[in-house]
Amino acid sequence: MTARDDNTIDFYAREVAAYTTRGEEASPRLKAFLAILPAGGRILELGCGAGQDSEAMLGLGFDVHPTDGTPEMARAAQDRLGVATSTLLFEDINEQNAYDGIWANACLLHVPRATLPSIIARIHAALKDKGVFYASYKAGTAEGRDDLDRFYNYPSPEWLLEVYQRCSWTSVTIDEAEGGGYDNKPTDWLHVTAVKP
Fold first, then answer.
1. Cβ-contact 65, 45 below 8 angstroms
2. How many Cα atoms sit within 13 Å of 183 on the Cβ side?
3. pTM surpassing 0.70?
């Protein structure tokens, strides 16, 4: 099973202008993630969107490699950032021991449940020893589509922890919080930080 969902990717391709003009600031959880990393550390950003988080990381002197699964979004981020931004599908992550941190804010939530364990294993392999992995998910009980026809895995904290524990981590922390999203609907979020031994 592939992690690619054409309807979801097509949505983001159509909405590039909206994402690049929303004026969003970097994720408030980014500061805590960066505090764990070595100064100037090498970071892979998955699902970089319009590039606001990569922009903040670059501004703090980190060696950032932004990527997005939607070619149009990757081009928009590259225009904003002035650094190479790759089009990368999660199942194509194939580096080994390459990154001090991997930042996946609100993107792995589009991966089918059956595929998520293999994607997390790829991320685990791409991290250096003591590397840090952050991802956020919309909580739920069963995968499906939202009103905008985007696919979501909608995990519970218990299911997500079981998936993460298939890899070796020093720690896995899941923080539950209320928030919102592009659709302006109240959303229960799961924020997961995992540290590689």
1. yes
2. 11
3. yes
